[in-house]
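Sat 14:20. Reprocessing the chain from the morning session after the first attempt stalled halfway. Input below, unchanged.
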Amino acid sequence: MAKLRAVLIGATGLAGQQFIAALKEHPSIELTGLAASPRSAGKAYAEALKASNGMTAWFVPEALPESIAKMKVVSGEEVQAKDYDLAFSAVESDVAKDMEPRLARDIPVFSAASAFRYEADVPLLIPPVNADHSRLVREQQKRRGWKGYIIPIPNCTTTGMAITLAPLAERFGIKSVLMTSMQAMSGAGRSPGVIGLDILDNVIPFIPKEEEKVQVETKKILGTLDAAGAAITSHDVRVSCTCTRVAVMEGHTESVFVSLARKASVQEVMQAMREWRGAEVSHNLPSAPPRWIEVLEDPFRPQPRLDRDTHAGMATTVGRVREDSVLENGFKYLLVSHNTKMGAAKGAILVAELMSAQGLLG
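Finished this time. C-alpha cells:
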C-alpha cells in the first residue's frame, strides 16, 4: 500500500527537525514536502540549515536522512493542500493561526502549536488517554465547512502528567492535582531559546503562559465527549502548578500531588499505573510503546538522563509513589516524560496514526 504523503511546515526549526527524525522509515507516512520561511525557499534542505558561520544547524541526535538533505524547501505560503494527504505543523502559534486553517480546508493538519488547542470543536488528543475525543473532528468539519481538520497536541508538560492521571481517574477518581515541573531547556527551542548564562547554575522559576496551559489542557484531555460527538465537557479536577526551567537538555521532570476521590494504598496506585493499557485502539499504532507508563521502585528514579528515552521516548516513567498526609486521599510521585518525543513530534505522529486507525484521516 502506498504511503501517505505528508508536508512538514516549519521544517528547519528544532521542532521541525524532530519531525524529520521521527518520520524516518515510518511504515505508512512519507515526507514528500518541506516548507519553511521565505529565506529558506528554493534551497536544498541541508543548505537551508546553514548558519551564517557555515555550520549546519541540525540539532537532533539522529542523522539527517540523505534524501531529506537533498529535498527542496518551499515557502509555507506556497504549499498546496492538493499535493498532500496530511500536514504536520511545527511553526509558532502566530504563524499557525493563518497557515493551518488554509491547509485544513482540504487535508488534516497535526500541529505542535498551541493556536487552536482551546477551541471548542478541536480535540486535544493523547491516544491512550482520550482516543474517543477524535470524533469531534467531524463536528469541526461541519462547523467550519472543511474537508480536513486541525488537531494540535497538548503542551509537552501536560502530556506526561495527563498520562499518569488517566489510570488514577479511571480507577479511583481524582479531585485535585498540584504539580511543580522542572522542564528541560529543549522545550524552549533554540531561537531564541534559553540563554546559556541564564540557565547554567540556576533554576528559572517562571515560563510564560505555561502554567495556564497545563491547568486548562489537563481538564480538557480528561474530559468527556458527549454522545453526539459535538462537545467536550472538561473534567472537574482542580489543577494548580508551578512550571520552572532547569539545566537539563531533554526530558521534563514533574513532582505531582493528587487527591483521589476514594481511599487507596500505595500498592493500589502503583498497580493502577502499571496495569493501565489505555484505549484499545492505541495499542498497535506504529509509534506506540509496549507500555505507556513504567513505574520504578528505586527511590532515586526517575531521572531525565536515565529515563527520558524509555521505549524510544514514548513512555512516561514514574517513581517515588508515596502517600501524602496533607491532601485528602493524597498521593505524590515524580515522573519523567520526553518533551521533544512523546511531548512533541512523535506525539503528533502518534495522533496521525490514531486517526488513520480509526478511519478518520480522510
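The chain has 13 helices and 14 strands.
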